[in-house]
Each structure stands twice: as structure tokens, then as C-alpha cells.
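Blinded run. Sample ID left blank on purpose so nobody reads anything into the name before looking at the predicted structure. Input follows.
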Amino acid sequence: MLTALFLMVALCVGGGLWLGQQRFAQDHDIRELSRDIAAAAARYNEAQRMRMQRQRIGAVQQLAETAVDGTTRGVQELHRGIASIPFEILEGIPETRATTRIVREVHDVTADTVYGGIRGVNRLLGKGLRRGIRANTSPSKGDE
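Blinded prediction complete.
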């Protein structure tokens, strides 16, 4: 009877130790899983923050491109208006009319080419910047 009691106590203690060891292993696994989840959440939050930054940069880039284009058009119109004053005066004089028309045409074509070039470079730069921003938007390069 004493042997049976001793065996019963030994089984209970052994079972308790085994359960304690299992509980310790589970707690360790839970802590490790918790760390993995926290690291994944941190990576996700950083990816979201970077995505938002790229969106802001894209919006600023678009605004700057639009502003340069609009300003260039405004300056071109102002330039043409100011340049037309002496041309109109000279075209009003019969002796200088023919030459002034030629000079005015050369001036207008040259000015339009220069301002068009500025707008073209602005568009190309904007396109390149948008590509660069998109290329960094996601790890998957297939979205470009």
C-alpha cells in the first residue's frame, strides 16, 4: 500500500514536472511568436509610412511640374505681348513694315521654340521623376 502511494505521488510529481515543462515550452513559443508578430507589424508600419511619403512626393512633383508649365506659358504670353509693342510700331511705318514682319516672325518662332523646349524638358523631367517614384512604390517591379 505504501508502495502504491509512493508510486502515485511519484506519478503526480512526474506528471506535474512534465506539464510544467510543456507549459514553459509553450510560453517560450508564445513569446517568440509575439516577437515575430511585433517585428512584422513594425515592417508593415514602415512600409505604410514609406508609401505615404512616396504619395506626398508624387503630389509635390506633380504640383511643381504643373507650376513650371503654367509659369512658362504665362511668361511666354507676357513676352509676346511686350515684344509686339515695338513690332506694331515698326509695322505701322511703311518703310520698315516688310523687314519688321520678317524679324517678328523669326522672333516669334524662336521664342515659341525656346518656351516649348522649356515645357518639353519639364514634362520629360516630370515623367522621369514619376517613374522613379513608382519604381520605389512597391518591392514588386511588375507594377511599373
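Unblinding after everyone has recorded impressions. The two ends are 81 Å apart (CA to CA).
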